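Person: Please work through this fold.
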Amino acid sequence: MRTFWGIFFIALLNVFFGFFPLFAPPDWKTERFLELNKDEFYLLTFQMDDSQKTLFFRWTLLKNEGLVVHLNYDSFPHQFILYQDYQRACYEIPLLKAEQKYYAREPFFMLCFKDYHRTKKIATLKYYLYQGNRDFNVIDERKVPNGGFNTY
């Protein structure tokens, strides 16, 4: 009798998640781990239709287990703190303005704090790019030596 209910329950889950894909994780265009020193920049340049957009970020301070991050996308600066706990580990930013004709989630960039090596003073981060139903390409991706936001 247990086997019947076990199979029934598994079949029910398959049917439920097959009809409701909202619970499935996003299909990432890119996901990458990286290690950054303090004030070392990471630069991403996107080609979207006829325009190019630049996103770059760096971390400046680890205080009370929180990593202070500065991010600039499309000439708009952001500052936030990431922690390693589940609820505050990631920061998400939309890459394109929402259009009403699309019913799927719009493209976004998400940066997550994974680890901090105290002896080396290096932060391990992971970023994700979600493309959605829109088309864009990453045309440049690299670490940039220490510098200021006005460098680009």
